[in-house]
Amino acid sequence: MNFTLLSRCPLFHGVDPVELENLLSMYPYAVKSYVKGNVLASRDDEYAGLMVVLEGSVKGEMVDSSGKVVKIEDISAPRPIAPAFLFGQNNRLPVDVVANDVVKVVIIPRPSMVGIMQASSQVLTNYLDMMSNRATFLSNKLYFLSFRSIKEKLAHYLLDLSKGQLITFSLPMGQQELADYFGVTRSSLARVFADMEHDGLVAFDRRKVTLLDREGLVKIIR
Asked: Where does the Cyclic nucleotide-binding domain lie (predicted)?
């Protein structure tokens, strides 16, 4: 296993690759490979071991009441999958985890993670930092989901990407990926893009976005 790559995972930040190899040698773990479309874990599965993506990327997705698949998040190497669900009384995965391409993951059982965190204060600190960051992410996600219309969601998304200062920036994903992220159809999202451009709020050139009326976007979400 590539311990240099694994040491770049946020969970193991600041831990020397040699030290990390020594830590893991003390506890059981496994390395598994998957191909595109494989399900690594299903919603409501007990999360008995932390999975860390070593190669490739996976996506977390769930099926809503209408049967539509909604993508929650992409997770690329070298990042852990759902670390917040490793512990707790009901530590079951809230989403299906599906391989986006050829994927290799290391699976560290819960007892092994407890031992590693007891042996390394750096790993323990990293884990606590990740939990705090995750709480912030979920808080922002809930705020995003509180917007009822696609127009409100898109306005908030663009303002967030601009970081309050940028006028021109690039979208990190294409329209289909963005539609999946919003939980809407691509055609519905495309209409909102066109409406915003027609109203003089923004200008789009493929993934390049220029904010023409920041205050107008702010008014949409108020």
From this structure: 11-134
Q: Which letter, b or e, does each residue of 39-68 get, where b requires 16 or more Cβ atoms within 10 Å of its Cβ? A: ebbeeeeebebbbbbbebebbbbeeeeeee
As given in the structure block, the two tokens for residue 213 are: 């009326």
Asked whether the predicted pLDDT for residue 130 surpasses 80, the reply is: yes
Rounded Cα gap, residues 183 and 168, in angstroms: 25
Residues forming beta bridges with residue 39, ordered by sequence position: 98
- Long-range pairs for 27-30 at CB < 8 Å and ≥24 separation? 27/108, 27/109, 27/111, 27/112, 27/115, 27/116, 28/109, 28/112, 29/106, 29/107, 29/108, 29/109, 29/112, 30/106, 30/107
Predicted confidence (pLDDT) at residue 222 exceeds the cutoff of 90:
no
Separation between Cα atoms, residue 181 and residue 203, nearest integer Å = 21
Residue with tokens 């007892």: 111
Give the number of C-alpha atoms closer than 13 A to the C-alpha of residue 198, restricted to the C-beta side. 6
- In order of their start, the domains of the chain are 3-145 (2.60.120.10), 150-221 (1.10.10.10)
What residues pair up with 203 in beta bridges, in sequence order?
Answer: 210
Of the candidate ranges 104-118, 141-155, 207-221, the one whose mean pLDDT is the lowest = 141-155
Query: In 48-202, which ranges are continuous DSSP H helix?
Result: 110-119, 121-145, 150-162, 175-182, 186-198
Strand partners, 177: none
- Return the SS3 of 176: helix
pLDDT score for 142 = 79
* Contact of 68 with 92, CB cutoff 8 Å: no
